[in-house]
Amino acid sequence: MQYYCGIDIGASSAKLVVIDAAGQTIAKAIGRSGIDYAKTAEQLLADLPAAESFDRSQIARSISTGYGRDNVPWADGKMTEIACHGQGAFFHFHRRMTVIDIGAQDSKVIHLDETGRRESFKMNRKCAAGTGSFIEEIAHRLALDVCELDALAAASTRDISLGSFCTVFAATEVLEKIRAGVDVTDIVRGAFNSVVKRIVEMDRVDGLLVTTGGVVAHNPFLAKLLGRAFGTEAHVAPDAQYTGAFGAALFACEQAQKSNP
User: Fold this and answer.
1) What percent of the chain has pLDDT over 90?
2) Which of 75, 106, 211, 247 is a plausible cystine mate for 88, CB 3.0–4.6 Å?
3) Bridge partners, residue 15, by sequence
């Protein structure tokens, strides 16, 4: 049996997925990216055999993606995050769609046609607004764990927004709202609304709206707000945090089969 590996070394976390020829996930792993991407990649792969029923030698091809894609010595090739998130999302839905990936350091809006071919894309890399880093900073200011935010935002009874897109100024605004007695649930929802507003300003949605990335994986209510802002339902991709790595694994499988028909 042959398997195919995709690894996504992101700005914050590293994800690894191993699939079979049918695209079914056989194993996956996640960890902090750290500063030594090569070491992180090696550690994720080395940890798999201890927990899964396959041998590393059975991996026929590996593709890397993400910020650290150039620093994975054992990868056989590399692909952009745009390509991999599109590939990973399309596998699950197979229709015309807009993929919105909210990562730690950037957000991406990717348009795919009904065959999965990329038509266009846009990225936000100018500041942290509209990204996971913004959400993490808000959690820090509220002395909360990031995983607590989704339930708090969903419990809010006021649909407010933070006035500042800049993370630094927004953090100051959060402190001001706390002093003013604004409920923490409303503050968190305001932060979510700010992320949504920045993404809505980036581009339109055409076709099915599919969201990917760790932010929506851990905060499905944010995806719901995003869909509401676009006037449609937002679908969270299966294993949304692993979509990039999964797409890379699909490319690895495709390339291996083309070279050995």
Assistant:
1) 69
2) 247
3) 8, 30
Kindly indicate whether the domain formed by 3-125+200-259 is annotated with CATH number 3.30.420.40: yes
Domain boundaries, the chain: 3-125+200-259
pLDDT of 76-120, one tens digit each?
999 999 999 999 999 999 999 999 999 888 899 999 999 999 999
pLDDT in tens, 199-257: 999 999 999 999 999 999 999 999 999 999 999 999 999 999 999 999 999 999 999 99
Helix H or strand E encompassing 44: helix 37-51
Nearest residue to 154 via CA among 216, 239, 66, 224: 224
What would the two tokens of residue 148 be? 């607590």
How far apart, in whole angstroms, are the C-alpha atoms of residue 182 and residue 190? 11
Which range has the top average pLDDT, 133-137, 171-175, 197-201? Answer: 197-201
Q: What contacts 24+ positions apart, CB below 8 Å, involve 33-41?
A: 33/9, 33/67, 33/68, 37/9, 37/67, 37/68, 37/71, 37/72, 38/71, 38/72, 38/73, 40/9, 40/14, 40/68, 41/7, 41/9, 41/14, 41/16, 41/68, 41/71, 41/72, 41/73, 41/74, 41/75
Tell me the β-bridge partners of 211.
100, 236
Query: Is residue 30 helix, strand or coil?
Result: strand
Q: For residues 9 and 37, is the Cβ–Cβ distance under 8 A?
A: yes
> Which of 95, 113, 88, 112 has the alpha carbon at shortest distance from 4?
88
